[in-house]
Amino acid sequence: MRKIIHLDMDCFYAAVEMRERPELAGLPIAVGGGSKRGVICTCNYKARQYGVRSAMPGFMARQRCPDLVFLPVRFDLYRATSQVIRAIFHQYTPLVEPLSLDEAYLDVTDAGRYAWDIAREIRARILSETQLTASAGIAPNKMLAKIASDWRKPNGQFAVLPEQVHAFMAALPVRKIWGVGPKSAERFAARGINTCGDLQKLTLPEMAAQFGKWGEELYHLCRGEDNRAVRPHRIRKSLSTENTFFDNLTTLAECQEAIDKLGREVLDDLRAKVPERRIRNAYVTVKFSDFTRTTRQCVCTTPTLEIWRTLLAEAWQRKPLPVRLLGTGVQFADDDSDEDDDHDSAQERQAELFAADEA
Ligand SMILES: [Mg+2]
C-alpha cells in the first residue's frame, strides 16, 4: 500500500504577489486577466468571495468585483519560489512528481514515518521559508491524495486512510473525478448518478459499453482505485559547466588545465546534487576564436578528469585556432523517458495556455 501526499500551494501566484507587495493586504487581487482577452490565472480568497475564479475572463471578473486589482503574471518570481518548495520536498523523498509550479505528488511510502506528520512538517517548513501556506492531501494513491488536498484548504490537510476509501468514495460527487467535467456530470445527473457511490452500481461491461475505454478507467476511479506511480519525470537531462576566457587559450596545456578545473566542478556537483542519477555519457565543448563550436562526447558511466582531458585533446585538434570557451558535462541515463499523458499533464497544458495568453 502506497503513502502519497499531494501538496498544493494556496492560490500560489496571488499569494506570492501579496507577499511581495504588502500594501495589497486585504484587497481582492487577480493575477492575469488584465489584458483585453485575458483569463485569470489565480485570485486570492478575498476575490473568491465575490465569485471570481481562476480561468475566468477578466471582463467577467471585473463585473463581479469592480474593485478587483489585476496584476501581471511574473513567472520568474513564481519559479524561484517553486524551487525553494521543491528543494524542501526532496529532503523527504526522491519520488517527487511536480504537476505545476505549485503542486506535486510525493511518494513517502518508504520514509518510515507517518505521512500525516511529514505533510505537517513540510507545510510548516514551506511557511517558514517562503511565508506562504500550502495544503496537503494524504492517501493510498494519487487520485485520492489530490482530492483530499482540497478538503481543508487553505492551510490545512486531510487524510483518506485505506479503510476509509470505500465510505469516502461512496459520498463523493462524480464531478470530483478527473476528467469528469460539468457536461459529463450533467449527463450523469440526468440518469440519477450524482455520487461515485451511484456510479459504482454500474458493472464493468456496462461502463465499457457506455463510455468506451474511459469507462473502464472510470470503473476503477469511482472506487478510489488508482495504480499510477509517482514519477519524478521532469528532471534534468544533463549537468555541465563552462567558462569563457578573458584571454583566448592558445596551447593544449592551458586548455587541459582549464578543463581539469571545470571537470572538478562537475564532479563536485554530481556528488552534491544528483548522487542517485545514472550517467550515460561525458562531453567537452570547445568554442574557437572564430566563434565556431565543437563537441566531443563518449559513452561513460563514471566520468573522470582523464576522460574529459582525452575528449578535449580530440576536440582541440579540429581547428588550429585559439580557444575562447571550454565546457564539460555529462548526460544522464533516462530511467523512464516515455511521457505519461494523463490528466495531470492536461492540467499543466492548461496552465501554460494561461501563461501564453498573458505573454
Ligand atoms: Mg495551488
Provide an overview of this structure:
Helix 4 runs antiparallel to helix 5 and helix 11 crosses helix 12. The protein folds into four domains: 4-12 and 78-163, Alpha-Beta Plaits; 13-75, MutS, DNA mismatch repair protein, domain I, CATH 3.40.1170.60; 165-230, Orthogonal Bundle (DNA polymerase, domain 1); 238-332, DNA polymerase, Y-family, little finger domain (Dna Ligase, domain 1). The protein is an alpha+beta fold. 41% of the residues lie in helices and 21% in strands. Mean pLDDT is 88; it is low at 335-359. Strand 2 and strand 3 (40-43) form a beta hairpin. It binds magnesium ion (MG). The site of magnesium ion has 5 residues, from strand 1. Magnesium ion binds at residues 8-9, 12, 102-103.
Short description:
The chain has four domains: 95 residues, Alpha-Beta Plaits, CATH 3.30.70.270; 63 residues, MutS, DNA mismatch repair protein, domain I (3-Layer(aba) Sandwich); 66 residues, DNA polymerase, domain 1 (Orthogonal Bundle); 95 residues, 2-Layer Sandwich (Dna Ligase, domain 1), CATH 3.30.1490.100.
